[in-house]
Amino acid sequence: MKTLTRMTPKQVNRWFMLALAPFIGASLCIWLLSEPPRLELDTSAYVPDSGLSEETGHIVQGLDQAALTVDKTIASIEKTGRLYQQTTAAMSSILKDTTAQAEVPERVYNRRITAKLGVPTERVSSDRINIELFKVNPGSYHGYAMKVKLNDPNAMAMSLGNDTGKSGSTETTLQAVTRHGAVAGINAGGYADGNGGRHPLSTTFIDGKYVTGFQPSFKDLAFVGLNQSGQLIGGKFWSQEQLDQLDPKFGATFVPVLIKNGKKTPIPEKWKTAPARAPRTVIANYKDDQLLIIVTEGYDEKGKSGATLQELQNKLYNLGVKDAYNLDGGGSSSLILNGRVVNKPSDGRLRPVPTHFLFFK
Hints:
By secondary structure, the chain is an alpha+beta fold.
């Protein structure tokens, strides 16, 4: 080996580098493991695309505006929802108060009616109909009054015949009530015997048609029935157009009209005496469209029992009805309620007739 003194400076440097190399490598590894290198990028030379930067800025700005709009919309919807709930509650309260106030005159008017009729002996009540039964006992005659409020126009109907399809077929009011499932019923229009049966008298309307065609009023006959809205209609009609204008739902014919528009109408002389007294069935309406039916008792048709038409006319007038019509009477008079015969038919049993007015619960 050459001595250091005999080496050139260049050779000495090489020798030291070779001798120290292992130590320098180990130190470098230790430094790298103890402190990771930090990389720094010089971005001063990078210049972004100005067009892309502006477009991105617009997009960001648009998104910010959209987010602001969404926030405002959500706040508006929430405010509208709260306002809707408050308005709905207020309107419900107003409607409730208005309904209650509107019902006050109706209740007052109904109390006035009931006060004149007395205390009801029987009631039927449902969503469709309200029925109250009263006794009528003024002294010279007695019977029953049935006040009916139709909450549903379809809670009243008319039956024709006995469902056999035979012309002139009949049935008692109780049979009609039972067959149709009604809660109450009365006899309706008059009839004429002939051709082996009892046929409805004059104009009779049911199921959207005239049974034997329209017949102009004659000999004091009057039509009475219900229109499609559940209101009592009736009177004398000289043309079909007159009756059609009232939109009839059903109806039958008898005689005479007792009260029209709150005024008494002249009673034909014949009907004042033939017979003078008799079992009677009359139907009337109040100005609020409630119905009133009166059926009077009588043990025969000889004019010695029952009520006169003048007496019933006065009674109905004092009760404050708007219109009133006499229906078939005598042995035909019948009143059925809750499955039983209320009155005492003068024949000693119910008489089969062609038409009946029925009431449904």
